[in-house]
Specification:
141 residues, Translation Initiation Factor IF3, Ubiquitin-like (UB roll), two-stranded antiparallel sheet, alpha+beta
């Protein structure tokens, strides 16, 4: 069908002539309401975005000298973060002479990971970044 003829048909119906495949020989076109089409596409995109889950990373900071009761409180926080579907980053910060006792920080971190192990899996292994030892836990599906 000629382009002029297709345009005339589209105008008679009050619709638009939309080029679908311009590289094909001859080019492929479609008669449709383009405004309605764009509206439907936007509606689908919004609906898909609504069902999308966004996970955040919550951080809990500790020191090697953190007391047992404070650790229990931190464990409760981590469990709450994981139950909400967020990742939890556990950071042990060393200051001054505490750097000589890195093993204490590693011990605390391993203890925390074991206590919340039923709710989470290890997303990032414990690693040192400057004066901080950190690990990331992700919730179990």
């Amino acid at each position: 069908m000629q382009t002029r003829e297709a345009l005339r048909l589209a105008e008679e119906e009050g619709l638009d002539l939309v080029e679908i495949s311009p590289t094909a020989r001859p080019p492929v076109c479609k008669i449709m309401d383009y405004g309605k089409y764009k509206y439907e596409q936007e509606k689908k995109r919004r609906e898909a975005k609504k069902h999308q889950t966004v996970g955040h990373t919550k951080e809990v900071k500790l020191r090697p000298s953190t007391d047992v009761h404070d650790l229990e409180t931190k464990i409760k926080h981590i469990k709450r973060f994981l139950e909400e579907g967020n990742k939890a980053k556990i950071t042990v910060k060393f200051r001054g002479r505490e750097m000589a006792h890195r093993d204490l920080g590693e011990k605390i971190l391993k203890e925390l990971i074991e206590k919340v192990g039923d709710l989470a899996k290890l997303d990032q292994l414990p690693k040192f970044e400057g004066k901080m030892l950190s690990a990331i836990l992700a919730p179990n599906k």
